[in-house]
Amino acid sequence: MTQYIFTPPAVIGASIRGRAEAFPIQRIFCVGRNYEAHAKEMGVAVDREAPFYFTKAASDYVPSGATVAYPPGTKNYHYEMEFVVAIGKAGFRIAEADALSHVYGYACGLDMTRRDLQLQAREKQRPWDLGKDFEESAVLSEIVPAAEIGHPAKGKIELAVNGAVKQSSDLSLLIHSVPALIAHLSGYYHLLPGDLIYTGTPEGVGAVVAGDKITGLIEGVGTIALTVGAAE
Ligand code: MN
Predict the structure, then answer these.
(1) What angle do CA 108, 114, 118 make, to 5 degrees?
(2) Ligand 1 centre and the CA of 6: distance in Å?
(3) Distance, CA 11 to ligand 1 centroid (Å)?
(4) Given 22, 23, 94, 208, which is the most exposed site by the fewest CB atoms within 10 A?
(5) Is residue 11 classed as helix, strand or coil in its secondary structure?
(6) 31 C-alpha to center of ligand 1: Å?
(7) What is the mean pLDDT of residues 148-165?
């Protein structure tokens, strides 16, 4: 057995509704601009031909219900409420018609964003990592197995800050559907069990500050919550 010079990091596990076992997170893919009205508020065009992605490290995961510190290096920390797909079966070049058979379940997610850093990167045509891939930026509810809830293609997706609704849309407004995303993404990666796909946020994104309580829901899937703490 391999010996390591220091203790290797633990596998990151997300909780599953009704199961004692956790869902081991492999990779986190995030889709950009997947709702027309959000692309419009960001001042960018949507691409109906093909989705695009950025990634977050599995170590960015934080469970729903947590309090996170206001992150370093930003003055414009944003929420993005998202419908998340949890892949349960490996696949490469998956046909759209077979795509849903690769889904283990679904969850509510928050793609927390350092918006100022993301926009600076966008302007300079640099990668988005500093704006998107940072510690505690991938908030996830418990995963609900598709075996229990099916494959939601419509239903309310909503987010509130301190009880005031900020984002309210419907899963039916996704530009690239879950089967289309799986088919497309699996043309570029061998999808693996444990991969997560954050499918993009609807309009109404905005900033939060220390003390704010974020709550979200997706009809037929579940709820999510996050409290913003003081900066470290
Ligand atoms: Mn997002």
Answers:
(1) 105
(2) 34
(3) 24
(4) 22
(5) coil
(6) 6
(7) 98
Closest C-alpha among 86, 131, 127 to residue 112: 131
CATH 3.40.50.620 fits domain 13-62+82-154+171-205? no
Domain boundaries along the sequence of the chain: 13-62+82-154+171-205
Using the mean position of ligand 1's atoms as its centre, give its distance from the Cα of residue 90 in Å: 24
- Which of 46, 38, 19, 130 has its CA nearest to residue 81? 38
Q: Model confidence over 43-102: pLDDT tens digits? A: 998 888 899 999 999 999 999 999 999 999 999 999 999 999 999 999 999 999 999 999
Rounded to 5°, the CA angle 49-159-109 comes to 60
Per-residue pLDDT, 111: 98
Q: What's the predicted TM-score (pTM) here? A: 0.97
